[in-house]
Structures are given as structure tokens and as C-alpha cells.
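My main concern about presentation is that the manuscript never shows what a single data entry looks like. For the editor and my fellow referees, an illustration may be useful. For illustration, here is how one protein appears when written out as sequence plus C-alpha cells:

***
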Amino acid sequence: MKLILTLILVCRGFILIAQECDPAMLAKLPGKWKTARQGSINNVTATDLQKEKTVLNTIYNMVTTDYKLEGVVIDYSFVFSKYGETKWYGDPYSLNMYILAYLCDPNDPEKKKYYVSVSSATNVSVMVNHSSNLDLYAALLEPDDIRGYLRMEKRPEKRNGYWYLGQKVVSDRGTNHETISYEYLITYNDTLPFLYLSRREYLLIQRKRLENSIKSDGSTSYKEYMDRIDKHLQMPEQELAKPAICMVNDEERFNGFVEEGTKGSFIAIKPNPDYFRKNLPLSSPQFFNLVFKVTTNYPVYESSVAGIEKSLDIQKLRAMLGH
């Protein structure tokens, strides 16, 4: 009897292994965390690097402890790198998680084998002291910055313990599997690490840019834009103090300001040096940027990103600021 029962169990196991795999079955397979190739390390002291690794390991442990991984392999890496000669208030570094699904082997005639996807557009990054979308760092802008300001699509929305930077489609727009991106900023006391550039500041930057263009090529075609800038600079101070909201395709000229939310517009911003605590080591987190990218209508990707997002405790991250 015992032998018969054993044979039944073996046969059932064989049937389970031999049956054709499908997405629902693959989504229930135990997931794995896999250390990706070491990210770049540049211009970071040994002392700061050790502390920064501790910060990222704390975040990694937060995710792996609270999130049960299924149906995917997550390649993760730590990156520590900064460039330029600007004034830094904190090193930029990050934990990057690339989410790869289990797929059936298309070369298996009976579709019984599975493998791990080699790439996907679905990933999560926890960035410390920088925001890739805004190109914002815990630092001043470089003196020779190409613009002299940064661009933001819309104002952040204050939520419970963080700033929501909005959602946008980043690839395959209009398809059934478009990839969306959404972001949070976690900051000191719900303040922001940047300031809105005033209209006056923007006009003076654009005027200087046009002056340099005139010097370099001697063209007179810029005169109408210079005249328009000078006319705007004569506006009442109340108007000039408003945030500069401009069109993306108008940065090499100046045709006027637009209303917030105009399609193709941006809000000009700049780092706020008064936000940063300047007596801290460069390894200390001064703000976090959480970036979530997920390919839609793939349940395994959507559930994985949702699980990681839930495991990233906002209050614990806030408590890490300034330490």
C-alpha cells in the first residue's frame, strides 16, 4: 500500500512537471533576488562609500523582508557616482531593481520549459540625493549648465508623508502594454529641495543666452526675441515674481509665458541650497526619489511593482533623512 501511494505521488509530480506551462503557473513560481553586476563607483570617499552601502542595504532589507517574491527574478544593483565640479551637499547613490518575468521556452515543442526574461521595461529605483527625471541633485547647478535651470512638467502633489510627482507614459504609448512611470519625493518636513524660478530670473537667463548667440554668429535674427524679453522685464514686479512657465520648443527664443498645464510646457526650477543641511557628511540622505516603471496588462509585473511599493515604508525612509 505504501509503495502504491508513493508511485501515485511520483506520477502526480511527473504530470505537474510535464504539463504545458502557462503564465498563471509561472506567476506562482518562487521568485529570486539576483545581484546584478556592480554599478559604477565614482568620486566617492571610502568612508562615505561604506556608509552609503549601509543605507542601501537597509532599504534592500526593508523590501526583501516585507515582500514575498513570486513569478519574477529581480536583478538589483547599487550605484554610487557623482560628476562635475559643483558644490555638493550629498552624494547621489541608488538601489536599482530590474524585474524579469519567467517565460515559456518558445523553442520547446511541447512548451514545458521556462526561462527568465533577459530584459524588461519594468523596474524600481530608490534614489538618494538625486532625481533622474528632474535632473535634480543635492548640489548647486554647474556654473556652465547648458540651461541655467531645471525643468518640471507639473507641480508635485503633497500627500501623506511624500510628494507625488505624477504619472506619465514612457514607452509604447497607446498600446495594450504601454509602460508608465510614477515618482515620489520624500523630504524634510514636507519641504522641497528646489525653488521655482521666477519670470524675472528666467528672462535674464534667456537674455544672456541670446547675447552669447549674437556674439558667436553675429546674427540679427534674435533681435525680436531680445526686444520681447526687454518688454517683459518692464512688467510689474508682481508679474515678474510669478513662476516661469514656458514652452519646451521655445527655449532658444522667447515668445512669452504660458498658463500652467499647457501641453508641451514646463515649470522652470532650480536647486534650493537652503533646503540642505550643510553640516552632514556627504553620505547622509537628504531626500529620496522613488521611481516606479511598470509595463501594463502584465499581471506579474504589476503585482511585483505593487509589492515593492508597499514594502517601501515611507515613515522609515523619512526617519533616515539627515542621518
Remarks:
- The CA atoms of residues 25 and 296 lie 19 Å apart.
- Residues 1-18 have pLDDT under 50 and may be disordered.
- DSSP finds eight helices and 16 strands in the chain.
